[in-house]
Write a structure and sequence with these properties.
Shape: globular
Largest sheet: 5 strands, antiparallel
CATH topology: Jelly Rolls
Strand order of the largest sheet: 1-2-9-4-7
Radius of gyration: 17 Å
CATH superfamily: Jelly Rolls
Structural class: alpha+beta
Number of domains: 1
Length: 174
Amino acid sequence: MNKNIKAVKRKKKFVNKFKAMHDREVKWQEGTALKMLTLPKGVKVKIFNHDPLMKRFDMKVKFPPGYVEPEHTHKSWHSILVTKGRMCVAGKDLRPGDYVFGWDLPHGPYEYPDGCEVFCVFMGDGTEHIWNEEKHLAHEIEWSAKTDTGKKAVAKGVTSRSKQLSKIKKDDKN
């Protein structure tokens, strides 16, 4: 099991018993998201439940406007239900109530031009995303933002990824 997930488990004991909770009772976490999901910065999670025997995590994931989740695989499967915003993937503009399933075959990239929240269940040997940074940085945006905030965030993301890609290519030449 990934050392990052082990660290998360040590920090908080998860109990397998009946639960009923309000969303506001669970805090958004960015550091935990980065360790668990191994995605570019900006993502936050709320972990509602963890069952180590079933290797299952139930969580909400929040993607900021303009975020691009790289094409990736996992050592697990995941079910995703969009709860707020837009998730654009596989030629579909998904909205609240829409669903995605992925597992250890490459899937994505997912674009979140106006931001998005999803409820996600991971089950298997890890929540980590396995992806190629250079391919991610070279990704060309396919979906247009509908909001002014999203339009600004998408433009900023495109510029940032382009600069990072140029730096990588420059470093490779040296």
